[in-house]
Amino acid sequence: MVALLLRRIASLILTLVAVSVLIYGIMDLLPGDPAAIALGTSAAADTLAALRQEMGLDQPLPLRYVHWLAGLFSGDLGSSYTYGVPVAGLVVERLSLTLPLAALAIVLSVLIAVPLGVTAAARRNGFIDHAASIFAQISIAVPGFWLGLLLIMLFAVELGWTPAGGFPGWQAGLLPCFGALALPAVALALPQAGVLTRVTRAAVLDVLSEDFVRTARAKGISRQVALWRHAMPNAMVPVITILGLQFTFLVAGAVLVENVFNLPGLGRLAYQALVQRDIVVMQAVILVFSVLVIVVNFIVELAQLVLDPRMRSDAA
After folding, report:
1. Rounded distance, CA 183 to CA 120, Å?
2. Predicted structure pTM score
3. Which pLDDT tens digit goes with each residue over 74-83?
4. Which of 13, 135, 168, 175 is deepest in the core (most CB within 10 A)?
5. Same domain, residue pair 69 and 142
6. Contact 216, 230 (CB under 8 A)
7. Which domain does 48 fall in, by range?
8. Helix boundaries (H) for the chain
Protein backbone atom coordinates (compact mmCIF):
# COMPACT_ATOMS: atom_id res chain seq x y z
CA MET A 1 0.00 0.00 0.00
CA VAL A 2 2.89 2.38 0.81
CA ALA A 3 4.57 1.67 -2.54
CA LEU A 4 1.29 2.27 -4.34
CA LEU A 5 0.82 5.57 -2.51
CA LEU A 6 4.35 6.70 -3.40
CA ARG A 7 3.72 5.89 -7.06
CA ARG A 8 0.50 7.90 -6.98
CA ILE A 9 2.30 10.88 -5.39
CA ALA A 10 5.09 10.72 -7.99
CA SER A 11 2.48 10.63 -10.75
CA LEU A 12 0.74 13.62 -9.16
CA ILE A 13 3.97 15.66 -9.13
CA LEU A 14 4.79 14.80 -12.76
CA THR A 15 1.26 15.74 -13.81
CA LEU A 16 1.52 19.11 -12.05
CA VAL A 17 4.84 19.86 -13.76
CA ALA A 18 3.45 18.89 -17.17
CA VAL A 19 0.38 21.05 -16.61
CA SER A 20 2.53 24.05 -15.63
CA VAL A 21 4.58 23.68 -18.84
CA LEU A 22 1.43 23.42 -20.94
CA ILE A 23 -0.23 26.44 -19.31
CA TYR A 24 2.82 28.68 -19.66
CA GLY A 25 3.40 27.63 -23.25
CA ILE A 26 -0.22 28.20 -24.30
CA MET A 27 -0.38 31.60 -22.57
CA ASP A 28 2.81 32.64 -24.38
CA LEU A 29 1.25 31.73 -27.74
CA LEU A 30 -1.73 34.06 -27.23
CA PRO A 31 -1.66 37.04 -29.60
CA GLY A 32 -0.85 40.48 -28.22
CA ASP A 33 2.05 42.06 -26.38
CA PRO A 34 1.46 42.36 -22.60
CA ALA A 35 3.66 45.46 -22.48
CA ALA A 36 1.70 47.12 -25.28
CA ILE A 37 -1.57 46.18 -23.55
CA ALA A 38 -0.34 47.71 -20.29
CA LEU A 39 0.91 50.97 -21.86
CA GLY A 40 -1.56 51.34 -24.71
CA THR A 41 -1.05 51.48 -28.44
CA SER A 42 0.28 55.06 -28.37
CA ALA A 43 3.31 54.24 -26.17
CA ALA A 44 6.74 55.22 -27.42
CA ALA A 45 9.02 52.48 -28.67
CA ASP A 46 11.73 53.08 -26.05
CA THR A 47 9.14 53.08 -23.24
CA LEU A 48 7.67 49.87 -24.59
CA ALA A 49 11.11 48.25 -24.80
CA ALA A 50 11.92 49.28 -21.23
CA LEU A 51 8.69 47.78 -19.93
CA ARG A 52 9.27 44.57 -21.86
CA GLN A 53 12.71 44.31 -20.25
CA GLU A 54 11.21 44.99 -16.81
CA MET A 55 8.63 42.25 -17.37
CA GLY A 56 11.30 39.86 -18.59
CA LEU A 57 9.64 39.53 -21.99
CA ASP A 58 12.98 40.03 -23.76
CA GLN A 59 14.27 36.74 -22.32
CA PRO A 60 13.92 33.32 -24.03
CA LEU A 61 10.77 31.36 -23.28
CA PRO A 62 12.50 28.50 -21.35
CA LEU A 63 14.27 31.00 -19.07
CA ARG A 64 11.02 32.88 -18.43
CA TYR A 65 9.32 29.61 -17.55
CA VAL A 66 12.06 28.71 -15.07
CA HIS A 67 11.73 32.12 -13.41
CA TRP A 68 7.95 31.73 -13.29
CA LEU A 69 8.24 28.23 -11.82
CA ALA A 70 10.72 29.46 -9.20
CA GLY A 71 8.27 32.20 -8.30
CA LEU A 72 5.52 29.62 -7.82
CA PHE A 73 7.56 27.79 -5.19
CA SER A 74 8.12 31.05 -3.32
CA GLY A 75 4.46 32.09 -3.59
CA ASP A 76 5.17 34.82 -6.15
CA LEU A 77 2.75 34.58 -9.08
CA GLY A 78 3.78 37.94 -10.50
CA SER A 79 1.91 41.23 -10.57
CA SER A 80 -1.32 41.94 -12.42
CA TYR A 81 -1.04 44.20 -15.45
CA THR A 82 -4.53 45.55 -14.79
CA TYR A 83 -4.68 45.92 -11.01
CA GLY A 84 -0.99 46.49 -10.31
CA VAL A 85 -1.04 44.21 -7.25
CA PRO A 86 0.48 40.77 -6.57
CA VAL A 87 -1.54 38.05 -8.29
CA ALA A 88 -1.16 35.67 -5.32
CA GLY A 89 -3.17 38.05 -3.13
CA LEU A 90 -5.89 38.34 -5.77
CA VAL A 91 -6.18 34.57 -6.15
CA VAL A 92 -6.26 33.89 -2.40
CA GLU A 93 -8.89 36.59 -1.91
CA ARG A 94 -11.12 35.15 -4.65
CA LEU A 95 -10.57 31.56 -3.51
CA SER A 96 -11.85 32.51 -0.06
CA LEU A 97 -15.25 32.94 -1.71
CA THR A 98 -15.19 30.31 -4.48
CA LEU A 99 -14.14 27.36 -2.30
CA PRO A 100 -16.84 27.91 0.38
CA LEU A 101 -19.41 28.41 -2.39
CA ALA A 102 -18.39 25.15 -4.07
CA ALA A 103 -18.32 23.31 -0.73
CA LEU A 104 -21.79 24.62 0.19
CA ALA A 105 -23.13 23.58 -3.23
CA ILE A 106 -21.63 20.08 -2.85
CA VAL A 107 -23.17 19.67 0.62
CA LEU A 108 -26.59 20.71 -0.70
CA SER A 109 -26.23 18.38 -3.68
CA VAL A 110 -25.36 15.42 -1.45
CA LEU A 111 -28.17 16.15 1.02
CA ILE A 112 -30.67 16.18 -1.84
CA ALA A 113 -29.33 13.50 -4.17
CA VAL A 114 -28.05 10.66 -1.99
CA PRO A 115 -31.24 10.10 0.07
CA LEU A 116 -33.37 10.59 -3.04
CA GLY A 117 -31.27 8.20 -5.15
CA VAL A 118 -31.14 5.53 -2.44
CA THR A 119 -34.89 5.74 -1.80
CA ALA A 120 -35.62 5.59 -5.53
CA ALA A 121 -33.49 2.45 -5.86
CA ALA A 122 -35.04 0.83 -2.79
CA ARG A 123 -38.55 1.48 -4.15
CA ARG A 124 -37.91 0.85 -7.80
CA ASN A 125 -40.76 1.76 -10.18
CA GLY A 126 -42.65 3.36 -7.30
CA PHE A 127 -43.86 6.92 -6.90
CA ILE A 128 -40.58 8.17 -5.40
CA ASP A 129 -38.59 6.53 -8.17
CA HIS A 130 -40.63 8.29 -10.86
CA ALA A 131 -40.48 11.58 -8.95
CA ALA A 132 -36.69 11.27 -8.64
CA SER A 133 -36.42 10.61 -12.37
CA ILE A 134 -38.47 13.72 -13.20
CA PHE A 135 -36.44 15.83 -10.75
CA ALA A 136 -33.17 14.62 -12.28
CA GLN A 137 -34.29 15.33 -15.84
CA ILE A 138 -35.52 18.85 -15.02
CA SER A 139 -32.55 19.84 -12.87
CA ILE A 140 -30.03 18.62 -15.46
CA ALA A 141 -31.85 20.42 -18.28
CA VAL A 142 -32.08 23.80 -16.51
CA PRO A 143 -28.89 25.91 -16.86
CA GLY A 144 -27.44 27.10 -13.57
CA PHE A 145 -27.29 30.78 -14.55
CA TRP A 146 -30.96 30.77 -15.66
CA LEU A 147 -31.95 29.07 -12.42
CA GLY A 148 -29.99 31.76 -10.60
CA LEU A 149 -31.99 34.49 -12.33
CA LEU A 150 -35.24 32.77 -11.33
CA LEU A 151 -34.08 32.50 -7.73
CA ILE A 152 -33.18 36.20 -7.68
CA MET A 153 -36.60 37.16 -9.04
CA LEU A 154 -38.42 35.02 -6.48
CA PHE A 155 -36.44 35.19 -3.24
CA ALA A 156 -34.66 38.54 -3.62
CA VAL A 157 -37.05 40.71 -5.66
CA GLU A 158 -40.50 39.34 -4.79
CA LEU A 159 -40.00 38.02 -1.25
CA GLY A 160 -36.97 40.04 -0.17
CA TRP A 161 -35.54 37.16 1.86
CA THR A 162 -32.00 37.31 0.48
CA PRO A 163 -29.78 39.88 -1.26
CA ALA A 164 -29.93 39.88 -5.06
CA GLY A 165 -26.17 39.76 -5.41
CA GLY A 166 -22.81 40.88 -4.11
CA PHE A 167 -20.77 39.65 -1.17
CA PRO A 168 -20.26 41.59 2.08
CA GLY A 169 -16.90 39.99 2.93
CA TRP A 170 -16.16 37.49 5.67
CA GLN A 171 -15.47 40.31 8.11
CA ALA A 172 -19.22 41.04 8.09
CA GLY A 173 -19.92 37.74 9.85
CA LEU A 174 -20.97 34.22 8.88
CA LEU A 175 -24.71 34.85 8.73
CA PRO A 176 -24.63 37.71 6.16
CA CYS A 177 -22.02 35.85 4.10
CA PHE A 178 -23.93 32.57 3.97
CA GLY A 179 -27.07 34.57 3.22
CA ALA A 180 -25.31 36.02 0.18
CA LEU A 181 -24.09 32.56 -0.89
CA ALA A 182 -27.40 30.75 -0.36
CA LEU A 183 -29.00 31.44 -3.76
CA PRO A 184 -25.78 30.90 -5.78
CA ALA A 185 -25.18 27.63 -3.94
CA VAL A 186 -28.71 26.42 -4.76
CA ALA A 187 -28.27 27.45 -8.41
CA LEU A 188 -25.05 25.44 -8.58
CA ALA A 189 -26.28 22.51 -6.49
CA LEU A 190 -29.54 21.59 -8.22
CA PRO A 191 -28.09 20.61 -11.63
CA GLN A 192 -25.38 18.59 -9.87
CA ALA A 193 -27.98 16.99 -7.60
CA GLY A 194 -29.81 15.71 -10.68
CA VAL A 195 -26.68 13.99 -11.97
CA LEU A 196 -25.80 12.61 -8.54
CA THR A 197 -29.34 11.27 -8.03
CA ARG A 198 -29.09 9.21 -11.21
CA VAL A 199 -25.62 7.90 -10.35
CA THR A 200 -26.64 7.00 -6.79
CA ARG A 201 -29.79 5.20 -7.95
CA ALA A 202 -27.91 3.22 -10.61
CA ALA A 203 -25.07 2.31 -8.21
CA VAL A 204 -27.44 1.12 -5.48
CA LEU A 205 -29.50 -0.91 -7.94
CA ASP A 206 -26.35 -2.62 -9.23
CA VAL A 207 -25.26 -3.56 -5.71
CA LEU A 208 -28.73 -4.72 -4.65
CA SER A 209 -28.63 -7.31 -7.42
CA GLU A 210 -25.34 -8.80 -6.15
CA ASP A 211 -25.24 -12.26 -4.53
CA PHE A 212 -23.95 -11.06 -1.16
CA VAL A 213 -26.99 -8.80 -0.69
CA ARG A 214 -29.37 -11.64 -1.54
CA THR A 215 -27.46 -13.89 0.86
CA ALA A 216 -27.76 -11.32 3.63
CA ARG A 217 -31.50 -11.07 3.02
CA ALA A 218 -31.79 -14.88 3.05
CA LYS A 219 -30.17 -14.96 6.49
CA GLY A 220 -33.02 -12.86 7.84
CA ILE A 221 -31.50 -9.37 7.69
CA SER A 222 -34.14 -6.72 7.09
CA ARG A 223 -34.29 -4.85 3.81
CA GLN A 224 -33.23 -1.55 5.43
CA VAL A 225 -30.23 -3.10 7.18
CA ALA A 226 -29.14 -4.87 3.97
CA LEU A 227 -29.50 -1.61 2.08
CA TRP A 228 -27.56 0.69 4.42
CA ARG A 229 -25.04 -1.74 5.93
CA HIS A 230 -24.19 -3.92 2.93
CA ALA A 231 -25.27 -2.16 -0.26
CA MET A 232 -24.39 1.48 0.48
CA PRO A 233 -20.65 1.03 1.28
CA ASN A 234 -20.17 -0.81 -2.01
CA ALA A 235 -22.26 1.70 -3.96
CA MET A 236 -20.24 4.70 -2.71
CA VAL A 237 -17.30 4.20 -5.10
CA PRO A 238 -19.01 5.64 -8.22
CA VAL A 239 -20.79 8.23 -6.07
CA ILE A 240 -17.49 9.53 -4.66
CA THR A 241 -16.01 9.59 -8.16
CA ILE A 242 -18.84 11.80 -9.39
CA LEU A 243 -18.54 14.01 -6.29
CA GLY A 244 -14.89 14.65 -7.07
CA LEU A 245 -15.72 15.60 -10.65
CA GLN A 246 -18.58 17.81 -9.49
CA PHE A 247 -16.43 19.70 -6.98
CA THR A 248 -13.83 20.55 -9.61
CA PHE A 249 -16.60 21.56 -12.00
CA LEU A 250 -18.16 23.82 -9.38
CA VAL A 251 -14.82 25.51 -8.65
CA ALA A 252 -13.81 25.93 -12.29
CA GLY A 253 -17.24 26.24 -13.88
CA ALA A 254 -18.96 28.79 -11.65
CA VAL A 255 -18.08 31.71 -13.94
CA LEU A 256 -21.64 32.34 -15.16
CA VAL A 257 -23.26 31.97 -11.75
CA GLU A 258 -20.68 34.26 -10.13
CA ASN A 259 -21.37 36.87 -12.80
CA VAL A 260 -25.14 36.54 -12.38
CA PHE A 261 -24.86 37.15 -8.63
CA ASN A 262 -21.98 39.65 -8.95
CA LEU A 263 -19.77 37.55 -6.69
CA PRO A 264 -16.03 38.39 -6.61
CA GLY A 265 -14.94 34.78 -6.96
CA LEU A 266 -12.19 33.06 -8.89
CA GLY A 267 -14.42 32.43 -11.90
CA ARG A 268 -15.27 36.13 -12.16
CA LEU A 269 -11.57 36.99 -11.86
CA ALA A 270 -10.81 34.61 -14.74
CA TYR A 271 -13.49 36.28 -16.88
CA GLN A 272 -12.19 39.77 -16.08
CA ALA A 273 -8.59 38.74 -16.81
CA LEU A 274 -9.66 37.30 -20.17
CA VAL A 275 -11.53 40.47 -21.14
CA GLN A 276 -8.63 42.70 -20.02
CA ARG A 277 -6.01 40.35 -21.51
CA ASP A 278 -4.17 40.18 -18.18
CA ILE A 279 -1.92 37.25 -19.07
CA VAL A 280 -0.28 36.96 -15.64
CA VAL A 281 -3.64 36.67 -13.88
CA MET A 282 -4.92 34.22 -16.50
CA GLN A 283 -1.87 31.99 -16.01
CA ALA A 284 -2.32 31.99 -12.24
CA VAL A 285 -6.06 31.32 -12.33
CA ILE A 286 -5.79 28.50 -14.87
CA LEU A 287 -2.95 26.99 -12.85
CA VAL A 288 -5.03 27.11 -9.65
CA PHE A 289 -8.00 25.52 -11.44
CA SER A 290 -5.75 22.78 -12.82
CA VAL A 291 -4.09 22.09 -9.47
CA LEU A 292 -7.48 21.85 -7.76
CA VAL A 293 -8.73 19.38 -10.38
CA ILE A 294 -5.61 17.22 -10.15
CA VAL A 295 -5.46 17.23 -6.34
CA VAL A 296 -9.19 16.48 -5.93
CA ASN A 297 -8.94 13.61 -8.41
CA PHE A 298 -5.94 12.32 -6.46
CA ILE A 299 -7.96 12.43 -3.22
CA VAL A 300 -10.88 10.68 -4.93
CA GLU A 301 -8.57 7.94 -6.19
CA LEU A 302 -7.22 7.41 -2.66
CA ALA A 303 -10.78 7.23 -1.33
CA GLN A 304 -11.61 4.60 -3.96
CA LEU A 305 -8.59 2.53 -2.91
CA VAL A 306 -9.74 2.68 0.72
CA LEU A 307 -13.37 1.79 -0.06
CA ASP A 308 -12.69 -0.96 -2.61
CA PRO A 309 -9.81 -3.38 -1.81
CA ARG A 310 -10.13 -4.86 -5.30
CA MET A 311 -8.76 -1.61 -6.76
CA ARG A 312 -5.65 -1.90 -4.56
CA SER A 313 -4.91 -5.37 -5.92
CA ASP A 314 -5.52 -4.27 -9.51
CA ALA A 315 -3.25 -1.22 -9.15
CA ALA A 316 -0.46 -3.07 -7.36
Report:
1. 27
2. 0.77
3. 777 777 877 7
4. 135
5. no
6. yes
7. 16-73
8. 2-29, 34-39, 45-55, 61-73, 87-122, 127-141, 144-151, 174-208, 211-218, 223-225, 232-252, 255-260, 266-276, 279-307, 309-315
